[in-house]
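Database export, one record per block. Field names are fixed; values are copied verbatim from the stored entry.
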Amino acid sequence: MSEFKGTKGKWEVHDNGYFFDIQVKGTTLASTQNNLYLNIDEKVQLANAKLIARAPELLKALEHTLEILYKCDPPKELQETYGNLLTNYTNLTSEITSEITS
């Protein structure tokens, strides 16, 4: 598993009264906002903030899943599907980690 190069610590969502901030130890990393042209209301804004806040955990889960998939020996009838899944997960993980480690 690659070392996470983003901000260490638990990413949390805080409502500052105007935006939803993604914070670590009280420091804002990012904020989401309403955008009526894109139909982003407060409900969508909060969903976006929650997704962003869980990004480090999602990456860790993806990397862990890859480790498990590489150790599996699928039945013959699932090998093509398994191979495609493994390729997709590997590519996605590589893209993400290269973007955050550069």
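Remark 1: The chain has two domains: 1-53, 56-102.
Remark 2: The beta strands are 12-15, 20-24, 27-32.
End of record.
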